[in-house]
Design brief:
Blueprint (H helix, E strand, L loop, with lengths): L21 E2 L3 H7 L3 H13 L6 H26 L2 E4 L3 E6 L5 E6 L3 E8 L1 H6 L1 E8 L6 E8 H12 L11 E4 L16 H16 L8 H11 L3 H28 L3 E4 L4 E6 L4 E7 L3 E9 H5 L2 E8 L5 H7 L1 E7 H12 L16 H28 L3 H27 L1 E5 L2 E6 L3 E8 L3 E7 L2 H6 L1 E8 L5 E8 H11 L5 H4 L4
Antiparallel strand pairs: 1-2, 2-3, 3-4, 5-6, 5-11, 6-7, 8-9, 9-10, 10-11, 12-13, 12-17, 13-14, 15-16, 16-17, 18-19, 19-20
Length: 507
């Protein structure tokens, strides 16, 4: 019997009819103590970079980091020693705390999903973190850090054992495919990831009292760059950044999606398992699945790819939901469509369903926004600087305007063509976006309310944005710039009875 399944010492409430209290795995203590490796590693790196010469600021910074990590480790030890939990016939009970003790009881029918996550250190010690998303007035989630892997799997099965809806789809929807790695460079991380890592490294060094230009190789690189022909070195630098970013994007893709598997794990639970160093397992009940988002970012769409996200309750706040709702990594669009159908089966709407186009003034709005928000301010800034400093900037302003105007018009037309909405069976379809084109398929029964938003400019154009409020996903999904005349009737047809009393009041 593992430590996670032992009754708590001294607890006599293990009589017949009552489930025994369980404790966390003792190896959790070693995981918490391993956190002290970070300040020690920082000290070693700083000493190596400075040749063993540490100033007062570096010592103070390292001491503060070590103190924080020591406090966190001590808190983790207390949490491990003072955590008790058990699963009864109809509820999950959790007790924590030393000075302030907390008891929490959650009915099992409020458990939305159960996720298992293990970082490299936790995997080394054979433990994992269990997080159960819950609903109700307290919301949030239950978190147990950490259990042995077998104990976590058993507890996960216990919490989800009540699901009993018939499954009418293939059990395995998708698995890891090395051919998808070609889509990794078509993501934000090609450029954004390089600058994010560089910024984080600079901040860490700055906090330790070290400046990057103090290193000889950095100083020489900047000097060589400034003394070279910029018309050649700038494109080469961008190419190098793209190459480094592409490699980083592939590595990140492998880390996040290695051993990936999307399947119906039982009669009514959709399971996502993935991860190389840090493993993750997310469970979504069919009863909590409110819809699916087929997302096509600009670069990924140009390469024929797409991703799939679940619109489901119990996945945490908005940031947590964005991380945990992804059920298919960048893949071919055909595969994304297939996975979408498998998640919504047996009555999934056709992906190629005809959508109602939006009025032409929506195109004009997108064009004007691009001109006023991008072309005009940059052109004016360059023109003013050119008049004050050098005529070269005047030519730059003219060149930018000549290039930016057709690009903005093309993007505006693409965004307008993406607009559309429709009602197909019990599903509501919404599509919009150009930099990130999203096709949202929502269960009409999940829409709780409608919000209609306009501005003085949109009212003049006869447009309104209707937002369908859903207790899942992003909380609301917008039908952008639809006809103001048709908006209310469309919302009433999509969700009969929700706004009908406001449209057709009783005499």
């Amino acid at each position: 019997m593992t430590a996670a399944a032992r009754p708590a010492p001294g607890d006599a409430r293990t009589t017949a009819g009552r489930a025994p209290w369980r404790t966390l795995d003792p190896r959790t203590l070693a995981v918490h103590c391993s956190w002290l490796g970070a300040p020690l590693g920082s000290l070693a790196l700083t000493a190596l970079a400075t040749g063993g010469r540490l100033d007062t600021r570096a010592w103070i910074t390292l001491g503060a980091i070590a103190a924080v990590f020591a406090c966190v480790t001590a808190a983790g030890l207390v949490t491990c020693l003072r955590t008790r939990y058990r699963v009864t016939a109809d509820s999950f009970e959790l007790r924590t705390g030393l000075f302030t003790r907390r008891s929490r009881t959650v009915p099992l029918h409020r458990v939305r999903n159960v996720d298992l996550t293990a970082n490299p250190v936790q995997r080394l010690f054979g433990v994992t973190v269990l997080r159960a998303g819950t609903a109700g007035s307290d919301g949030g989630e239950l978190r147990l850090e950490a259990l042995s892997r077998p104990a976590a799997e058993r507890l996960r099965a216990e919490l989800l054992a009540r699901a009993g809806t018939d499954r009418r789809t293939e059990p395995v929807l998708a698995s890891f495919d090395p051919r998808r790695l070609r889509f990794a460079p078509l993501t934000f991380w090609v450029f954004g990831g390089v600058f994010a890592v560089a910024g984080a490294a600079y901040r860490v060094l700055h906090e330790m009292g070290l400046e990057p230009w103090q290193f000889g190789f950095v100083r020489r690189a900047f000097e060589d760059f400034g003394n070279s022909a910029l018309w050649l070195t700038i494109p080469l630098a961008l190419l190098a950044i793209a190459a480094v970013g592409s490699v980083g994007a592939v590595v990140l893709y492998v880390e996040n999606w290695w051993n990936y598997r999307l399947e119906w794990t039982d009669s009514a639970t959709l399971g996502v398992r993935r991860g190389l160093l840090t493993t993750r397992a997310v469970s979504i009940e069919r009863a909590r699945l409110r819809g699916v988002v087929l997302r096509e970012p600009l670069l990924l769409r140009a390469g024929g790819g797409a991703t799939v996200r679940a619109v489901a309750g119990g996945l945490g706040d908005r940031d947590e939901n964005r991380r945990r709702s992804v059920v298919l990594p960048p893949a071919t669009r055909a595969e994304a469509v297939r996975v979408r159908g498998g998640m919504l089966a047996p009555d999934a709407p056709p992906e190629a369903a005809e959508l109602t186009p939006h009025p032409r003034p929506a195109l004009r709005r997108r064009t004007v926004r691009g001109m006023i928000g991008v072309v005009l301010p940059v052109t004016l800034s360059l023109a003013v600087l050119g008049a004050l400093l050098t005529p070269v900037l005047l030519y730059c302003a003219a060149g930018f305007a000549l290039v930016a105007v057709p690009v903005v018009r093309a993007l505006a037309h693409d965004a307008y063509r993406a607009l559309g909405h429709a009602i197909t069976g019990r599903w509501l379809l919404i599509r919009s976006g150009t930099f990130s084109r999203d096709t949202v398929t929502l269960d009409r029964n999940a829409v709780l309310a409608w919000t209609f938003t306009d501005t003085p400019f949109s009212r003049r154009a006869g447009l309104v944005t209707a937002t369908a409020a859903v207790a899942a996903g992003e909380d609301g999904y917008r039908v952008r710039d639809m006809s103001a005349v048709e908006a209310a009737d469309f919302a009433d047809a999509a969700t009969p009875g929700v706004i009908g009393e406001f449209l057709y009041p009783a005499p």
